[in-house]
């Protein structure tokens, strides 16, 4: 073998440990700085940041909400035809009288960005609540992910349709969409500190340009009244009476639901609102007040733009231009800008639209990055790295690429899935608001919110019936979240699953006294009421079966399970001396994990490896494993040993497990 051949394997590029460490540190940056990671009863509230003025945060949510003007008029024209303005009026009524009151209530009930999902989580205990939240997260993922891909796809359509665009870009919508998504991902990988400043500039420019377009369109309509006459004559010829028009508008308005897409994002970014200097984590009154201003102002602005844009586009644009392949398909206001203000202004308008549609994905990404770390890691249904921003960004971007390729960057085909996600979240918010006011005894408010819930339910059902692809896409997200979540939960079931371990005064005294006589001897005991005779018999049997040294003191450790569906809790160990024995009693999410966490902490406290003594449990091992995964108990001894083995790699330092 030649020298060159011998050296060739070493010449292969390999990642050095230092390079791997730098890459990992960059990817997981901020993970160790997460506050309030453990959601137990003694978890600490996250430190408050300075925040921003409400109108600036409105622009952050506005890049999602206001950007729908880029495609909403075209979607409305396709759905309602000449009745688009009337259907838009119905949508505005539902926005101001339905969605706005609901989300003003959500802002009050959930002021830290959790949204209606947190409100509903509190209604259902145990695994039912967790499962319900996972389903809602599936719909939220549908909403936010499709926001990213649909907005980028519409931005790509504006690029391709611009008359100054090179002919080589024609038909390249998919690649342009992927490029825009990659740029969005790069922004989040770099950092998102300047997001609000960028959002303010984009929203101000975009709304100002839209005012110019709509004023110009209104001028043409008012100076040529025949256009209004032609539209009215065509509409009345197509529909026999005003009652039929209203009926048709009520039937088709669910297809316009995208015009309400910004409300969930509005409460998701609520932690960015500054509020008052006197605000506390428990009572952020200023933040709630200013968020309500944000929601109300955004709804009023958007309602005005929706109505005016619907009238302008319906009256001035031929209906066939809205169809697939038409010049106004997915870009109705851009069509008016080019037609009535020239190609130069139209290009400026296109650039503004492309920018805000692209950045609308940033608002949706911010919503996802707010929701996922709040729930899945806390449930044990995602790895700990999902608390870091960059790995999540890469995960979401991979999903966005897959969705874009699946739909070929088609705006119309994605709108059904988008509307489904939006409407499910609004339905959940209205239902949660109904329950919240009902529990407070506000009967009139409960009736009002109940009516809104019924309207959203009708809208959702109608949308699903007419566009079943939307619910199919949402179900794919839901199944993916359920499967990966439960797989993660099973994989992480053998972790310690404890935050802080603390002791009350009696427990600390009992432990210190026992530790003064040597390594701690802990008997794991069923946490039921016992007599002195039962405790003495248990101690005698354990000493006989597991050969506990004679004369040494023993402590009884008893674990109470409050909610086995919880993954992590802070553990507070209470001590007492009763029935002639000394007991340590603690509440935890699972018996083996809690016992292991206490043993590990006792080792650190006393400086000696403790010994734990168990009895074997009768029954089939598979049934015991299932009981452990679902109910948190089962065969405690071997699972405790496995938890300890994973928590401590050194056998010499690992707490001892004895079974008799």
UniProtKB/TrEMBL annotation:
Organism domain of life: Bacteria
Name the record gives this protein: Amino acid transporter
Origin species: Streptomyces citrinus
